[in-house]
Amino acid sequence: MARKKIREYDSKRLVKEHYKRISGSELPIKSAQVTESTDFNELVQSEPWLSSSKLVVKPDMLFGKRGKSGLVALNLDLAQVAEFVKERLGKEVVMGGCQGPITTFIVEPFVPHNEEFYINIVSERLGCSISFSECGGIDIEENWDKVKTIFLPTGVSLSQEICAPLVATLPLEFKSVIEQFITHIYSLFVDLDFTFLEMNPFTLVDGKPYPLDMRGELDDTAAFKNFKKWGNIEFPMPFGRVMSATESFIHGLDEKTSASLKFTVLNPKGRIWTMVAGGGASVIYADTVGDLGFANELGNYAEYSGAPNEEEVLQYARVVIDCATADPDGQRRALVVGGGIANFTDVAATFNGIIRAMKEKVEKLKAASMHIYVRRGGPNYQRGLARMRALGAELGIPIEVYGPEATMTGICKQAIECITVSA
């Protein structure tokens, strides 16, 4: 499962679109998205309520505490919303220690209300935690002792009896309404493969629940079965993160293949780089480097898996090597290649793409004083490792090659020892 954050606009869109199918009744959610390319005249034509309602506008950028940061404007007309957006669109802000421009806003009706409730559902290994409070809103953290939580094992439906502890202290006039709402939202959460869904707050409008603020995350590995339900979903980068050209290139490759190709630059000047097969193995390598105290030297996070073909591996390896060898400074660098023990991937076949890339980039590898550490097991791994050993002799670059008898953590330790020799 991969938890991917989505914008508040998409969270509310999904809840609105599917709540009636799940519950038999509608939620009167209204929202509009505003970006640099938005034409307000066209937006009003598609969302006519914008010209007849008092409005709320706020950034939709995957960060919280917008109200406490003065980034939420209430009770505006459309002209005031347009001015608010114009003054802040593209402007850099610092949130949670991350700095970036505001590029996307959400606009909604201004909903006067008295009650503010809180609900949070989180997917865990063995089920889901459901939390609820009748004291929601911006001060939820100060009232955390009033949040009630239950755990629901996977495969168990949320019954009235199980839900009872969450709503036990609610007034009778809306206790059953909120109980049904929690039950329906949980069913929707499971049906759409949410991994996280929080409404803080939601309120009651004419006796019906109405989400005011919402955060959501989806399991993006479930896209194959949900593409019709999700529609045109966006998985934005975390606030403050902008894809580099190389990351965008790999992302494009990943979208065009049934395999998985991931690449994130952590430190362009790092001296330990990875080109690892397997999602689990890639995490182990990265975590081990950090645990050994050299996270600041880790250049990237990388993963290729799902049996990519030779041409895909070639293009992938070119990018990794180009980044790992950029701006040589005379100090040693280390490139860890390989991964765990494959189940079905032909190790020799995927190594062919890496070998071709290393032959193309041999001068760059030499100029960067690159030491390469290979560790791999799985189908046809002996042939793949033999080719890697021969490649080191052929190119005249240091390549140390190991099979499954060596540990992944041990390979990381060798890479660290390599770069510290010249430190």
UniProtKB/TrEMBL annotation:
Report the top EC class in one word: transferase
Principal place of residence: cytoplasm
Q: Which domain of life is it from?
A: Eukaryota
Sorted alphabetically, which keywords does the UniProt record give? Answer: Acyltransferase, ATP-binding, Cytoplasm, Lipid biosynthesis, Lipid metabolism, Nucleotide-binding, Transferase
Q: ATP-citrate synthase ATP-grasp domain: which residues?
A: 2-230
Q: Which reaction does it catalyse?
A: oxaloacetate + acetyl-CoA + ADP + phosphate = citrate + ATP + CoA
GO CC terms on record?
cytosol; succinate-CoA ligase complex
Assembly behavior: Heterooctamer of 4 alpha and 4 beta chains.
State the function annotated in the UniProt record. Answer: ATP citrate-lyase is the primary enzyme responsible for the synthesis of cytosolic acetyl-CoA, used for the elongation of fatty acids and biosynthesis of isoprenoids, flavonoids and malonated derivatives. May supply substrate to the cytosolic acetyl-CoA carboxylase, which generates the malonyl-CoA used for the synthesis of a multitude of compounds, including very long chain fatty acids and flavonoids. Required for normal growth and development and elongation of C18 fatty acids to C20 to C24 fatty acids in seeds.
Protein name as it appears in the record: ATP citrate synthase
Q: What's the source species for this entry? A: Taraxacum brevicorniculatum
Q: Which gene encodes it?
A: ACLA1
